[in-house]
Amino acid sequence: MKRNLIYICLFIFASTKIVFAQVENESTKHPILTSKFQLGVGLFIPSQSLKFSIDAVSNNQEIDFGKTFDFNNSAGRPQVSFDWRFAKKWKVSAEYFNANYSEKAELEEDIEIGNGDYTFESGSNVKIGYKINLYRIYVGRIISSGLKHELGGGLGIHLLDMGPFIEGNIKVNGTDNEFKRASTSLTAPLPNIALWYYYAPTEKWAFTARLDWFGLSVNEYSGFLWDFGPSVRYQIIKNLGVALDYRYFNVNANVNKDLWNGSVDISFKGPTITLIGNL
Questions:
Q1: 29: closest CA among 206, 196, 236?
Q2: Is 249 buried (19+), middle (13-18) or exposed (0-12) by CB count in 10 A?
């Protein structure tokens, strides 16, 4: 009987040590590996390159916004992200990025609208710009995880709401005529493969990398998409961290639709600083 009591005490002691060890291990993990919810609000400061080839605007004449209209300048863009670990091995992530811009310019060459209905002649003073709203969402599964790392992959979609515009007084035979505006808009869903990797050597520091890729033909759309970047994250306090990352985003697509029959080549690259709240 006495021996049995000793065995029971040893079993309870050993079980307690295991439980406390597991709790301790969980508590020493970086929040990026354990948090159920993460919300990030950041500022993306990219250099950019934009080219549109659009029948609806220029009779399939390519407009290089960066070269022709000096749109390569860097300006801060808002970026919002959200992660939800809804199961032990599963999570859903969402992100929003905005890159609307416009600028006044004097045309150095003619831009023909439609099927020659009218032309913005060289020398016309116009306002030209674009809108790009990017919505990214994916569902991912953890492939491998440990005390200091996590590897995962999933399927997602980049939803691009984009389109250029040009407006101003058209010139006919060198003289101003009437005010005209030409614009087009398109919402393009681009499915993609998503991969991510987290390495957190301490409770405060974490290093991450992510990759989204698309290279298929889907209905009226064809082309490729790359969206990737490394990041370093520091946990300031229990529920608040800060991240600095470098992002490269590029989409090159051909569109075969009545509204927009042409192509688009857009790239953004640069640093992002983000405040991240976690629970």
A1: 206
A2: buried
Using only C-alpha atoms, the chain has a radius of gyration, in whole angstroms, of: 26
Q: Which of 52, 138, 36, 50 has its CA nearest to residue 94?
A: 138
Q: How far apart are CA 129 and CA 65, in angstroms?
A: 8
Helix (H) or strand (E) holding 21, with range, is helix 2-27
Q: DSSP character for 122?
A: T
Whole-prediction pTM value?
Answer: 0.76
- Among residues 258, 237, 259, the alpha carbon closest in space to that of 182 is found at 259
Q: What is the mean pLDDT of each run of 10 residues along the chain (279 residues)?
A: 46 40 58 96 86 57 56 74 95 90 75 65 77 90 95 91 78 67 75 93 96 75 84 96 94 71 79 95
Set out the domains of the chain in order of their start, with CATH numbers.
Answer: 31-278 (2.40.128.90)
pLDDT of residue 63: 60
